[in-house]
Amino acid sequence: MNRALFLLVIGLGGAAILVALGVWQVQRLAWKEGVIATIDARILDAPVALPETPDPDEDAYLPVAVTGKMTGETLRVLVSQKDLGAGYRLITALELRDRRVLLDRGFIVTGNAGFTTPVGEVTVTGNLQWPQETDSYTPEPDINNNIWFARDVQAMADLLGTEPVMVVARTVSEDDPAISPFPVDTSRIPNDHLQYAITWFSLAAIWLAMSLLFLRRRRAPKSES
């Protein structure tokens, strides 16, 4: 095999690999869009009763309706909202007839002087969620000042003495008007496959163009001195 043919094979082979990676990302994009559409549909389904033993995999995003009393034991999770600025998610213990679960009541801005807790029973419609917000870089919660930096269902349940089950409120029959519901949605599910596909296809075009340019230069007759 002469040098020109070898370079042609390398150029076409490299471009083919990059195009294949781009096609794979397009397929992943279609798969991820299907997953997100399925989750969106489930989030807005008619609410059901809270399962006896919710499963983090099977019951993720399950719409539920529960009635109980907020105990007032509330943890604050530092977050920000695009239009409202910095604030806290409020995670409160909710006592049902024979069990205690976590209730994500929603968002309150940091400048608010405080919030109240309903005294009587409330009915909450929302979705079950076990958010994966912690990693090795997440700071430990400041227990003394009641500031958390991520929702950690198990750790919060241990501290408040509830089941490791969180209901993220969509509506609450009675609550402090300063608290805005922060319902479950799919906006935070990563879906970067289109950008990845464009990157691979662009690299394939560049690889092929540079290979052809190199071949053209190799084949060009050398000028006589």
Automatic annotation (TrEMBL):
Membrane topology: Multi-pass membrane protein
Primary location: membrane
Bilayer-crossing regions: 194-215
Keywords: Cell membrane, Membrane, Transmembrane, Transmembrane helix
InterPro entries in the cross-refs: Surf1/Shy1, Surf1/Surf4
Localization: Cell membrane; Membrane
Gene Ontology CC: plasma membrane
The family this protein is said to belong to: Belongs to the SURF1 family.
Protein known as: SURF1-like protein
High-level lineage: Bacteria, Pseudomonadati, Pseudomonadota, Alphaproteobacteria, Rhodobacterales
